[in-house]
Amino acid sequence: MMDKNMQKNLVIVESPAKAKTIEKFLGKDFKVMSSYGHIRDLKKKEFSIDIETFKPIYEIPSDKKDLVKSLKESAEKAETVWLASDEDREGEAISWHLSEVLKLNAETTRRIVFHEITKSAILEAIEHPRTIDLNLVNAQQARRVMDRIVGFKVSPILWKKVKPALSAGRVQSVAVRLIVEREREILAFQAEAAFKVSAIFTLENGTELRAELNRKFNTQAEAEAFLETCKNVDFRISDVQTKPVKKCPAPPFTTSTLQQEAARKLNLTVTQTMLIAQHLYEYGLITYMRTDSVNLSKLALAQCAKVVEESMGKNYVQVRQFSTQTKGAQEAHEAIRPTDMSVSEIEGSVQERRLYDLIWKRTIASQMADAQLERTTVSINKENDSDNIFLTYGAQVKFDGFLKVYRESTDEDIEQEDERLLPPLTIGELVQSQEITAIERFTTHAPRYTEASLVKKMEELGIGRPSTYAPTISTIQQREYVQRGDRPGTERNYTVMTLKGDTIDTQVRQETVGSDKGKLIPTDTGLVVNDYLMAHFPGIMDYNFTAHVEREFDEVAEGKEEWKNFIGDFYGKFIPEVENAQHEQTEHKVGERQLGVDPVTGKPVSVKIGRFGPVVQIGSITDEDKPRFAQMKKGQSLRTITLEEALQLFALPRTLKDFEGSPITIGAGKFGPYICHNKKYISLPNPWDPTTISFDECVQLILEKRKEELQRHLKSFDELPGMEVLNGRYGPYISYQNKNYRLPKNADPEKLTLEECLKIIESQSSAEKKTAPRRTARAKK
What we know:
Number of strands: 32
Low-confidence stretches: 411-417
Radius of gyration: 34 Å
Number of helices: 21
Structural class: alpha+beta
């Protein structure tokens, strides 16, 4: 007879949201618990690798010990334990760690995997359990060990040579290299001007045709000379070519293409995209979201065909199976798709609904017929001039096919322009030129990377895998090696010449160019660290090495290679580079740049990376007096700052005469310039200049601040000095221990007693602990 305390089945997953969804599909014989990710890992502050054997040394973090105890107790009471973490290498490693730490009995432990959280998928997995795949576990361990070796051996060198708290990483450092090289390519780029000619022609019936000349002119004089030849001449249609064009749909989403398309269409960062996709997966709405496969299951293909036929007609159905091009596509066995293709809308947050809609449309479109277009090219030129031909394009959609549902964002602008419907045209037909315009255009440099285009480049080069794209891009921004641009661009003049009738009008106009909003730009720290790593660790910074290592991990996952062997080979070649870098002696700090001499003191002026970022230094450590330092302003750069700009930074702090017995000091801090008087700080707002503001102006700002604080302060208590009743933007509130508490509607703030304030604080603190559960996304009924 079974013990009353025995649980027949225990299912362990890695997230509480996933546990909640799975629990709905299983009966009372199953208990579902969450491990909240890994229950053990490498020690955070120690190397944690045995260099002789490369065996990782794991520990259970202190915040996981109670959870492990609870899981162990439940596992001991269960007849069967089902390990149901994700199907990729990370998920396999989580199951392995659970098995090891909980000391699970191999005979009563089952490993199940599924790429969607639906009732049929869960029950199917339970019908076909397997054992833990140690090849996948070893591939994940190999990645952790190699990344730990690189990080723990190189980062301390950066702390010593550049600044504290920096880090190096096998994937992150190479991602920074991509951004640095693109930035230098942009800085070296020289734009070249040329004149592009376009025209507006009209037919006899008044219909307009817009066309572009098939060549450009290098100079304004050449363009103007061409416009002169177009005065008072006849233009005729010299050729009309029409041909059928077929457009095919894009494959269903992989992790990379979902991140790219969500950035373009929904303006989401890669981290936001993966977080929302994780929610949709855990709610059972989409398949596993870390994958580089474009394959669809037979069930999904059948569902798509049914939905398309019922909603649009049989002629819109074209079942097709795409093949994966990415090498080592091991993360999952299917593309990202809805678990039920009949559900086109879901309930949930706005972002969850929008991302689901994008995934649904992309999947449906992939199983729809090609779009059939008829594209027309029309040539227009002057008589006896076959070299200078104006071309106009048009297209007519004969059958919209998949375009009825979805159009890939990168092609939208081009398609919209090409799909102009042209009227019937005849070769030899006379057309009237309304105006011909020559506009000065400039060559453009390669664009700075966005998060989406960086993911695409990393995938092309084989750097990282679906599970690492988002964490890598997030890390390089958190470490301040890279930042998102916010410059609006600069104004540039360009020339426009317009021929109307027999008159050429010339104008100089302005355009904004070089905006880097949302683009990834290397910081000074990123540039210095990249250059140092390229000089001293060229091996780990090589794109081919990073891609080669990923292929090695794939070989381990397939059971074709012993992971400790290739880690050992790498370590033997890597450690001499580490030792050389450690023992290298340099006169100047890495990245330091000499600007000149301070005319007042005669001491050298230099810029470098300091403890808190880029700084200017006057003097040197060998001087009798200590060097002086000034933090560089936002927008200033180590590579471009001048001696004059650097010396201006030492104008602060300024000390003015006393006011009410205390001096007024103007300085600059982390959050901008400020006035300090009697140990109280006042931010210096625009347009005040901290280097020129006068004593009287400072006094005025001090008095205004006092008046503002007086109006804001309503009540305080001698018995409890830290508590105040203040008047804020949204009404009166209690401020206590760096927290704010709103007052009840009927409360009179000036009559509140200390006891009443404490009751308000206690009631709101209790309410915070009983927060309502998050509303989850679900299929729309």
